[in-house]
Amino acid sequence: MARSTPLERVRNIGIAAHIDAGKTTTTERILFYSGVVHKIGEVHDGNTVTDWMAQERERGITITAAAIR
User: pTM for the full model?
Assistant: First the structure.
């Protein structure tokens, strides 16, 4: 499979912090401002990219580690 993005344009970013520090909110902003998504998801609305499990959306917390592309 051919690479669709030149390797020199790829950036890997890791975000680690305490509970309720804003990791999901920061991730949503990074995705939006880099053009990956066209609408910023909100934790309290349950529509974030990284919180995909029903329990995460109901409780407003991230339960599992998330890798996004």
Answer: 0.77
